[in-house]
Amino acid sequence: xxxxxxxxxxxxxxxxxxxxxxxxxxxxxxxxxxxxxxxxxxxxxxxxxxxxxxxxxxxxxxxxxxxxxxxxxxxxxxxxxxxxxxxxxxxxxxxxxxxxxxxxxxxxxxxxxxxxxxxxxxxxxxxxxxxxxxxxxxxxxxxxxxxxxxxxxxxxxxxxxxxxxxxxxxxxxxxxxxxxxxxxxxxxxxxxxxxxxxxxxxxxxxxxxxxxxxxxxxxxxxxxxxxxxxxxxxxxxxxxxxxx
Length: 244
Known about the structure:
The structure is a single chain. The chain starts with 16 loop residues before the first helix and ends with a helix. α7 (201-217) links the parallel β6 and β7. Helix content is 44%, strand content 15%. It is built from 8 helices and 7 strands. α1 (17-27) packs parallel to α2, α2 crosses α7 and α6 (176-187) runs parallel beside α7. The protein has one domain (72-243): HUPs (Rossmann fold). It is an alpha/beta fold. Strands 1-2-7-6-3-4-5 form a 7-stranded mixed sheet, sandwiched between helices.
């Protein structure tokens, strides 16, 4: 057992991996975090381990941390956690607010920089945008971006900017997951945190599908958070974990 570990419980189940994992989580409500590997981009691999990870991310009742290899990692050879860049992707929903709370605590605990990222739709690339290009669409794009910037700026507090060097970033794209993954790679992010709206079919078509794609394509570990569900952060919670 590694230094700082309190205990390890091993369980073995026979059956479909995704269903068995979810059953174990639902059975034991004391589980705070699920950590899973995912094989990511390759099509065949995705339908095996990747599809299991996506299902768990979509339906687990607690946060899920997914890790791909070989990719950027934040655990060093001496088993110490080293976070320098924490990126939180937001759509301004409740789950995104929960993700930002996690981002703050990770950045504060490990002395990392916090980046809040939002992707706005590029309405000018819509198939029918050319017809209205000279009038309404450029104005609509400006209004969307102005409103999003206002929400981004409001989401970060003065304390975030002062103590976490927090930065708000807005990108324009009609492929939000790809834009987020590309930005994380460019920024050399250590962890990407995002909300997922979880079990409902309609919700899954929105931020949930973005989260699942990020699990497969992001260049760093991804922490997905649903809200309201079982969470593992609270006052000084991560600080206690870091000092254990």
